[in-house]
Design goal:
The complex is a heterodimer of chains A (about 350) and B (about 220). Chain A has about 350 residues and is of the alpha+beta class. Chain A has two domains: about 120 residues, Jelly Rolls (Sandwich); about 190 residues, Serine Threonine Protein Phosphatase 5, Tetratricopeptide repeat (Alpha Horseshoe), CATH 1.25.40.10. Chain A is built from 14 helices and six strands. In chain A, strands 1, 2, 3, 4, 5 and 6 form a six-stranded antiparallel beta sheet that branches. In chain A, helix 4 runs parallel beside helix 6 and helix 5 crosses helix 8. With about 220 residues, chain B is of the alpha+beta class. Chain B folds into two domains: about 120 residues, Sandwich (Jelly Rolls), CATH 2.60.120.10; about 90 residues, Winged helix-like DNA-binding domain superfamily/Winged helix DNA-binding domain (Arc Repressor Mutant, subunit A, Orthogonal Bundle). In chain B, about 40% of the residues lie in helices and about 25% in strands. In chain B, the strands form three sheets. In chain B, strands 1-8-3-6 form a four-stranded antiparallel beta sheet. A four-stranded antiparallel beta sheet of chain B has the order 2-7-4-5, with no helix packed on it. A three-stranded antiparallel beta sheet of chain B has the order 9-11-10. The longest helix of chain B has 25 residues. The chains are: A alpha+beta (about 350), B alpha+beta (about 220). Chains A and B meet through helix 1, helix 2, helix 3, helix 4 and helix 5 of A and helix 1 and helix 2 of B.
């Protein structure tokens, strides 16, 4: 049980630097906490209100007291040990809630003070930091972690400085995860490695007229906004985003890319008939579309979903018969899909 | 452990290897582990450093109360992990119903406030040598706060830290930290190893820092 203690004016309940497990509540009289502000060096005198707790942080955290608790006029206090305070607090949640609020404000304030001092030395922006974390995972073939980080990057910074690169890395991570699985396969992005290109299926063409690092604008921004929605699995919203982009026809390159992405959205929305129609038209309009092979794959997938295995197999075989990089993710996916179909047919 | 069965709607499950949140991600929720282990790590340079491995009933991500502050580390599930997810909206309800969790969070805050204040003290030193020395004093204090009974080993202290860690805490560049530590090593005040740094006389560092601290 907490004990009552009395202190005379001008006495000290505890000194700065003391280590103790006592927590106090002021019942009557006047007590001041005296300390030096860490930021401006000023002497602070904080007068405790009747009913207020003090000495909580240092007691709970087993840290030295940070202030002198000086009695200004004869005072009576209730003294808790930490275990007694714990018992008491379990029946008085409101008091802990109040303390949580006070402490979280203090934490915010001191955090801000630290930030102010760090401003010059640690300039890394969260955006650049997040991107770097993704790069680390990708480099170390932790594809699923890389996928998580890059798709989060695109969610938070759809028009960010590294959005284009993030979306490319996201594809590399996706294909790495399909092709090799976490921790396996050649290290992506390592320049001196012999096969870095193989890990990146159909990299988006560079647009030389754009200054690297410049913010995306117009069609590019719309494209990555929609792409970010796609990565958040908001396919409906992504679809209307790509559709608007295509209809505005502001940039032929992004119109072409947008058309392909629309098909992927339709597939995700399980509208397989529409998907098939859409991709078939796409191939007719753009026989040399950079995502042609992937388009064929999605056509195969759509027919498979519709239950037409022969047609699906036809598309997969077409992919495998095509000239090109046999290690590309889409080839392997087609091979896998075809094998699954054949096994299902025989088994 | 408290009865949390009425809070299942705040429950989340993560598969082994799955990321709960990534370093630098903005965050507005924190987590109470109910089952499984969670790895807390940071990417430092080209290395992933495991800072901690947490298990039930520990809390993580609590710094999300600092609005807009990015996550300072990555949390990743080691096993199948079950957590309760707290945010501004459900915080009060969950805390009112779970004084034990509230008390644990309160203790965590006291520690975080102390950490930040201590860090502030390091950063207010002008001299990079004093900053580095004070980092070791801080580390000595925190490990003393966790485990008692290391005192009889004399003045020599061993720290499982790297130059990057020291630079981070001191708020100076890695290069600068390297220079200072090299200087200390030449003076035979520290010994540098791949995975640890040994301070030969911690009291010497304490005197040094005190002489540099503005009164």
């Amino acid at each position: 049980m907490p004990k009552v203690a009395s202190y005379r004016a001008n006495s000290v309940i505890y000194f700065q630097g003391d280590v103790s497990d006592k927590i106090y509540v002021l019942q009557q009289g006047k007590v001041s906490l005296n300390y030096t502000d860490i930021e401006n060096g000023k002497d602070i005198h904080e007068v405790i209100q009747t009913g207020e707790f003090f000495g909580v942080k240092s007691a709970l955290g087993k840290y030295p007291r940070e202030e002198n608790a000086v009695v200004l006029s004869d005072a009576q206090v209730l003294v808790f040990t930490v275990p007694e305070f714990e018992v008491f607090s379990q029946a008085n949640t409101r008091i802990i809630m109040k303390m949580l609020k006070v402490f979280s404000n203090q934490l915010r304030r001191v955090h801000k003070q630290v930030e102010n001092l760090l401003e010059k030395s640690e300039a890394e922006s969260p955006e650049a930091g997040l991107f770097k974390v993704g790069e680390y995972y990708l480099k170390n073939r932790q594809y699923s972690s890389a996928k998580y980080v890059f798709s989060r990057y695109l969610t938070y910074y759809p028009a960010g400085r590294m959005a284009e690169q993030a979306s490319r890395y996201l594809e590399v991570a996706e294909s790495g995860s399909v092709k090799y699985g976490d921790g396996k396969g050649p290290a992506p992005m390592v320049a001196e490695h012999s096969r870095p290109a193989a890990a990146a299926p159909s990299p988006a063409p560079e647009r030389p007229e754009r200054t690297p690092g410049a913010d995306l604008d117009g069609a590019a921004k719309d494209f990555y906004d929609a792409k970010s929605l796609f990565s958040q699995e908001k396919y409906k919203e992504a679809l209307s985003g790509f559709k608007r982009l295509v209809e505005s026809n502001a940039d032929p390159e992004y119109t072409m890319k947008g058309l392909y992405e629309m098909g992927r959205c339709l597939f995700m929305l399980q509208q397989y008939d529409v998907t098939i129609k859409h991709f078939t038209q796409l191939i007719q309009s753009y026989p040399k579309h950079p995502d042609l092979v992937d388009t064929l794959f999605w056509l195969g997938q759509s027919w498979e979903k519709k239950g037409d295995k022969d047609r699906a197999a036809g598309f997969y075989k077409k992919i495998l018969a095509m000239e090109g990089d046999e290690d590309a993710a889409v080839h392997l996916k087609a091979k896998k899909a075809l094998r699954a179909l054949e096994e299902a047919a025989h088994g | 452990m408290a009865d949390l069965s009425s809070f299942t709607r705040f429950a989340r499950t993560y598969q082994p290897g799955e990321i709960i949140f990534a370093e630098y991600e903005p965050g507005d929720s924190f987590y109470l582990i109910q089952a499984g282990r969670v790895k807390i790590s940071k990417i430092v340079g080209d290395l992933e450093k495991t800072i901690d491995i947490l298990q039930p009933p520990e809390i993580f991500g609590e710094m999300s109360i600092l609005e807009g502050a990015p996550r300072s580390a990555t949390a990743q599930a080691i096993d199948v992990v079950k957590v309760l997810e707290f945010n501004r909206a459900n915080f009060e309800v969950l805390m009112m119903g779970n004084p034990q969790i509230a008390l644990r969070l309160l203790k965590l805050f006291t520690k975080r406030i102390w950490d930040q204040k201590r860090r502030f003290m390091i950063l207010t030193l002008d001299d990079p040598q004093a900053k580095v020395a004070d980092v070791f004093l801080m580390l000595a204090e925190t490990s003393a706060a966790v485990s008692t009974g290391g005192e009889q080993e004399g003045e020599k202290r061993e720290f499982k830290v790297t130059v990057e860690d020291v630079a981070h805490w001191a708020g100076i560049s890695i290069q600068e930290a390297q220079t200072v530590l090299g200087h200390f090593a030449n003076q035979r005040r520290v010994e540098l190893f791949q995975d640890r740094i040994v301070v030969r006389n911690i009291s010497d560092f304490s005197r040094f820092v005190n002489s540099r601290r503005k009164k």
